[in-house]
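Late entry, evening session. Most of the bench is empty. Finally got around to the prediction I had been postponing all week. Sequence below, unchanged from the version circulated by S.P.
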Amino acid sequence: MKLRTRLPLLFLLLASSLSLSACNTIRGIGEDTEKAGEVIQEEAEDASDELKDDGTAAQGG
């Protein structure tokens, strides 16, 4: 194959590889962000439950 034929093919292969790699990276960031959000939500629920429990005890109930 001549260089003129190989060069566009090589560029296409490189571009495809980079786009697939970026796709996996973005998916990973999305999953990490989702997990972090779940942890924050659970902690907020726990804190809310503790505040409710403390409020009930302070009222003598």
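Two things to note before I forget:
The chain is about 90% helix and 0% strand.
The two ends are 85 Å apart (CA to CA).
Will write this up properly tomorrow.
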